[in-house]
Amino acid sequence: MLTAFLDGYSCFVVLWGFFFPKRPFIDVWLVFDLPVPSKLPNLPASEVPSKSKVVWEKFSSQTNFERDMYFYGTFPENFTWGVSSSAYQIEGGWDADGKGPSIWDNFSHVPGNIKNGDTGDIACDSYNKVEEDIYLLRALGVKNYRFSLSWSRIFPSGRNNSINSHGVDYYNRLINGLVANNITPIVTLYHWDLPQALQDIGGWESSTLIDLFNSFADFCFQTFGDRVKFWITFNEPQVIAWAGYGAGTLPPNVNDPGSAPYRVAHILLKAHARVYHTYDDKYRASQGGVIALCPNIDWVEPKTPSDPRDIEAADRYLQFLVGWFTHPIFKNGDYPEVMKWKVGNRSELQNLPSSRLPVFTAEERDYIRGTADVFCFNTITGHRAVAWGLRRLLNWIKEEYGNPPIYIIENGVGIKTKSDVDDNTRIFYYKTYIDEALKAYKLDGVNLRGYNAWSFMDSFEWLNGYDPRFGLHQVDFDNPNRPRTPKRSAVYYAEIIRNNGIPLPKEDEFLYGEFPKNFWWSVATAAYQVRKLRQTLKVYVDNGKGLSIWDQFSHTPLKISNDDTGDVACDSYHKIEADVEMLKSLKVSHYRFSISWSRILPDGTTKYINEMGLNYYERLIDALLAANIMPQVTLYHWDLPLALQNIGGWENDTIVQRFKEYAELLFQRLGDKVKFWITFNEPYNTAYSPYVVGHNIIKAHAEAWHLYNETYRAKQGGLISITINSDWAEPRNPYNQEDIDAARQYVQILRGLCFLSVFYCRLPEFTESEKQRIKGTYDYFGLNHYTTVLTYKINYPAVTDRSWLNSGSVWLKVTPFGFRKLLRWIKEEYNNPPIYVTENGVSERGDLDFDDTWRMHYYRSYINEALKAVVLDGVDLRGYTAWTLMDNFEWAVGFDEKFGFYHVNFTDPELQRHPKASARYYAQIINCNGFPDPATGPHPCLELENSIVCAFCSFCSWRTGLGSFCFSVWKIIQKIP
Q1: Cis link prior to 468 (omega < 30° from 0)?
Q2: Where do the catalytic residues lie (predicted)?
C-alpha cells in the first residue's frame, strides 16, 4: 500500500521502482469458485478521478479502531482456497527431456545476474516430484492449485512444430493427479519464461508473438482443457512490459522506459484477447471453463484525502498500474482517459509526431472489450505489510469494474532467512490479510470467490534467488533431494481452509450475565498522577508537602515526553468536590487512590507530620463516604520521598522500618474509615534492582501487614494486601516447549509474580525466619492487568500478534482473552484466593475524541472475560477497578497517553473535566452489575436516570456546536449492551 502524492508519469515510474530486484512483500490473492461463464457488462470509460474516490471517501474517515478491529466469520460454501506457484520458480529440469531454453534459463546462467549466483536449473525439482507435491497439496486441504506451464517445455522452439511429448506428459500427470484428489487446476499460460527462440525474433515487441502465443494456448486448451476449467493468460503483464522492456531489470533486459513498455503492453493485450476468443469460439461450449488475465495491484492512498490534487495523483497511479490492462478489458476496450491524456501530452511536449501510447482501432477495441470472465489479481504491498489496504483495494475493484467475480491469485510474505519452519510472521500476515478479505466480502458485498496463498513452497524468487522465502513449505536447497517440510503457517492455513474462514472461537463468544450481588466496582488514580503536588524544587509548598523522586525526575530535562511534569497534573488536591461528582456519575461503589508519602511525611520519617496533608486525605475520604463510595487506599505508588532516596531508597535496609512507621500513621489516622489497604502498587516496576529492592519491598509489605493484622484489624475490620501487575503470556508457538517454558517464566517471574512469595515463599535469599514472617501476608490477591504478550525462548523479548488492536501505548495491545486466562491461572496456582482487579484500562493518543468507542470496546471485552472467569471458571473475583478516572500524568510519557473516562483540558487553568462516552458506558455496566441478556427483554438497569441525562445534556450544551457529536454518542451508548 502506497501513499500517493505523485504527479503524472512519475507515479508509474516510481511504482516499478518498488518491484525488482527488491520486493520483500508480495501480496497475491486468488478468489475462485468457477462461476457459470457469462459476459461481463460493457462499462463506460472511467471517470477522472475514477471510483477510487468513492473508496477513499468511504474509508478515510475510519478511526484506527474501526479499521483494525478483527472480524470473525466464514466465506460462502463454494469459496475456493488454494496455493500458487510458477513453472520456472519450482520445476527445475531446465533442459530435461527435450525442454528448450527460456529467457530466464539463459539470464540466470550469466554470472552476477542473480543473487548468490542462484539459478532455476533445479529449483524445487517439482518436475520430478509430482506425487510428493500433490500429497502436500492434499494435506493442506486446498480446493485448487494454481501453477504455470513452461512454454519451452511444451514447445521447445516456441512453435507448434516442435511439440515435446515429455513435457506434455509431465503436465498431464500433474493435472490428472490434482483432479484425482479433487483439487482444481488453475493454469497460467505465461509466467514470464518466454522461449529464447521467440525472444530471438523480437520477443513481445514483435506482433508475430500474437499468433504464436495463440497457437500455444490453442494446443493447451485442446490437450488439457477437458480437465482444466480455469485459465490465466498472462501473470502480471505490467511486470512483463515494464520490468522486461522499460526498466530492463528482468529478462529480456530491454531498457527503453519511454516507449517499449507501451508497445509491449499493446501486443500483450491483443495477444490476450486473441487467446480469449480462441477459447470462447472453440472450447468454451464443450469445456465450460473461465479465462482471464492476472495483473498485480498495489493499493494506494492519497497523502491528504481532502486534497483534490492528491486524490487525482493517487487515482492516476491506479490507472497507470491497473487500468493500463484492466480498463481495456473490463471497461471500453481502450486505455484509461487519464493515461491517454497524460502520455499524449508529454509526447507532444517532447515534440514527438504521435503519442508514445499506441492507439487501438475501433475494431480492436471491440475485440478486446469483455475478454475476461473473472477478475484475477496479485497484490504487492511494497516495503511492508498493510493489511487494511486489501479491503480497500477489493472495494475499488467492485466499484470500478461493476463487482465482477474476483479471484486473488497470489498473497503472501517473504522472510529473509535460511530456515523459517516456525514462521510466526507469515501466520500473522495471513491472519490479517485474509481477515481484510473477509470484511470486504461480508461487510462490503465484494464478489470475492477465492483466495490463493503465495506460495506453495519456497522457490526461486527471480533476481533474489532463494532469498527471501515465501513458502508454506520449506525446501532445503542444499540437499540434492530438495526435501519439503511443512511450516507452521501451513498448519495455520490448513485450519483456515478447514474452517472456511475465521469463525469466532467458542471461548470468545460474548457471555450475558451478572456478577455476584456484592461485587465491588471501582475506578483508580494515583497521587502523583492527578494531584497538585508542588511548584518548585527549591522549597516545600502546597501546605508543607515534601519532594518525591518523581518531582525530581520530571524536572530533569528529556526524561518526560514534551518535558511534562506532575506539578499541577489534574489539581485533584484542590478539586475534591469535582472528583467526587465524577465518581458519583460513574456509579462506582469504591474509589482507589494512593497516598503521597511525602505529603504526609515530608522527609519520609515521622519526625515531622504534615497535618495539612493528612487533612486533605481526611476530607477526601469523608466526601467519598458521604457519597456512599468506599475508599481503597494504596500506601505506595512509586513516589518515594526524595529525602529517603538520598540515603539509598529501597536499597537501604532501614527503609523497611520507615515504611512501617508511615503505614502505622495512616492506620491510626485513617483506618477507622478505610477498610481496604494496598501496601505496594506494582512492586516489580519499583524493583529496578530486584534482588535488593524487591527483597526490601517484600519485607516492608510483610511488616505493614503484620502491624495491621496484629494491632488494627480487630477494631478496624479491614483488608490489606499487595497489588502486582501482570501481563498474560502465551507461547508464540504453542507446540514448542521452549516457547511454553518462556511463557510460564514470564508470568511467574518477569512480570512480578515473584513477589507472590507472600503466598508461597519461593525466593531462597530470605532467611527461614524471614520466610515465615512473609508467608501468608495477604488478605486478597490485588491484580493490575492490561495486555497479553507472546514469548519465545527464555530471556528473549516478548512479541505481539499483528491482528491485535493497538492502543495509545506501544506496549498495550487489546487482548481480552488473556485476562480470563490470567485469572484462571491465579486460581489454579494459588488455591483460588479472593481476587480484586485493581487496575485495567486502555489509552489513546492524538486529538481528543469524546466518542471513545475503542475504550468502550475494551471495557466491554475485558469485563466480559472477567465475568466468564467468575461464572464459567469459578474464579473468586470480588471486585473490578478501571484505570483511570480522568486523563492524567502517565509517568514517562507525560500527558501524551490518555486513559481517562473524563477528559481534562490541561491548557485550561481551571482544568475542567468532561465525560467521554466511555464514562456513561462504564456507569451502565455498573448499574447492571454486568451484561443483562437482551433476549429477556429490556432491563431496568439500562434505563437512563434523569441525573445522568441532565449531566450529559449539560456537557453538550456548554460546548457550542456539539449537537451532532452528542447525538452520535447517544446512539453509540444505546447500541452497546
Answers
A1: yes
A2: 410, 839
Do residues 967 and 912 touch, judged by C-beta distance below 8 A? no
Using DSSP's 3-state secondary structure scheme, residue 847 falls into coil
φ, ψ at 546 (rounded to 5°):
-90, 170
Count the neighbouring beta carbons within 10 Å of the beta carbon of residue 669.
Answer: 17
Looking only at the bridges linking them, the beta strands covering 406-410 and 448-454 are parallel
236 a catalytic residue: no
Query: Does 350 fall in a domain?
Result: no
From the list 136, 142, 258, 241, the residue with the least C-alpha distance to 190 is: 241
- Give percent of the chain with pLDDT exceeding 70: 86
User: Which candidate in 410, 436, 664, 703 is catalytic?
Assistant: 410
**Cα–Cα distance, 580 to 565 (Å, whole number):** 24
Asked if the structure places residue 721 within a domain, the reply is yes
Q: Map grid coordinates 493485450 to a residue.
A: 269
Q: Is residue 894 part of a domain?
A: yes
Give how far the C-alpha of residue 163 lies from the chain's centroid of Cα atoms, to the nearest Å. Answer: 50
CB 780 within 8 A of CB 721: yes
What gap in Å lies between CA 877 and CA 869, rounded to an integer?
Answer: 8
Q: What is the pLDDT of residue 708?
A: 98
Q: Which of 236, 400, 461, 839 is catalytic?
A: 839
Same domain, 479 and 577: no
Whether residue 970 sits in one domain with residue 888: yes
Q: Convert the pLDDT of each residue in 716-726 to its tens digit.
A: 999 999 999 99
Annotate 553-577 with b (16+ C-beta within 10 A) or e (fewer): bbbeeeebeeebbbbbbbbbbebbe
Contact indicator for 840, 727 with CB cutoff of 8 Å: no
Q: Are 563 and 924 in contact (CB under 8 A)?
A: no
* Helices 337-349 and 9-17, packing angle to 10 deg: 100
How many angstroms separate the Cα of 98 from the Cα of each of 93, 94, 190, 370, 852?
10, 9, 19, 38, 67
In the chain, the N- to C-terminal Cα span, in Å, equals 36
- Using alpha carbons only, give the angle 832, 834, 839 rounded to the nearest 5 degrees: 115
Q: 499 and 631 share a domain?
A: no
Same domain assignment for residues 478 and 530: no
694-713: b (≥16 Cβ within 10 Å) or e: bbbbbbbbbbbbebbeeebb
* DSSP category for residue 585: H
Active-site residue, 410 included: yes
- Residue ending a domain, among 471, 506, 541, is 506
Q: Say yes or no: 457 and 533 in one domain.
A: no
Q: Which residues pair with 83 in a beta bridge?
A: 145, 453
- The reported pTM is 0.90
Q: Residues near 859 by Cβ (< 8 Å), separated by ≥ 6?
A: 841, 842, 882, 918, 921, 922, 925
In a domain, 318, yes or no: no
Domain-terminating residue out of 506, 529, 564? 506
Instruction: Give the residue numbers spanning the domain of 640.
Output: 521-975
Q: The domain that contains 498 carries what CATH number? A: 3.20.20.80
Q: Does 617 share its domain with 668? A: yes
pLDDT band at 560 (very low <50, low <70, confident <90, very high): low
Number of domains in the chain: 2
The DSSP secondary-structure symbol of 799 reads: B
Query: Is residue 598 located within the same domain as residue 663?
Result: yes
- If asked whether residues 829 and 877 sit together in one domain, one would say yes
Question: Is there a contact between 194 and 103 (Cβ–Cβ < 8 Å)?
Answer: yes
pLDDT, tens digit, 9 for 90 and up, residues 495-527: 999 999 999 999 999 999 999 999 999 999 988
